[in-house]
Amino acid sequence: MRATAKRDGERFQHDVEIREHHLHADEPEDNGGEDTGPSPQELLAGSLASCTAITIEMYARRKGWNIGDVTVDVNYEPAQRGSPTRFEMAVRLPKELPEEQRERLMQIAAKCPVHRTLEGEVMFEETIEAV
Asked: What CA–CA distances, in Å, run from 14 to 35, 43, 103, 108, 122?
């Protein structure tokens, strides 16, 4: 998987290209940006929320469960000195679903690829290229 960010404005606006898709990332005005798109950290929270929802829906589809609407709300608090990064995630499922289905779907939610990446060991390989 590959994502490329290239400045697209005067301040911190960036066009992010992923396959054939283009997103905008920026910083809020109080961080010196123009607020033309979500910040990179907001995109991270959005990645976790959408990955969780999609993982739940894919599992339910494979099981033949009609689970209705799924909403995942993620609040992200970056690490501060002495405390870890915190993600608070609320998964909203229809109350009509049986309790055992809701419990199983919450187990599956923790297995989404973004969730596993964030809780696992991460390694970086960084290079600089003069162009």
From this structure: 11, 13, 40, 34, 24
pTM of the model: 0.90
pLDDT tens, residue by residue, 21-34? 999 999 999 999 99
- Give the count of domains, the chain: 2
- At 95-105, the pLDDT tens digits run 999 999 999 99
Q: Judge if 123 and 62 occupy the same domain.
A: yes
Buried b (16+ CB within 10 A) or exposed e, 90-120: ebebeeebeeebeebbeebbeebebbeebee
Question: Where in the sequence is the domain holding 33, given as residue range(s)?
Answer: 1-38
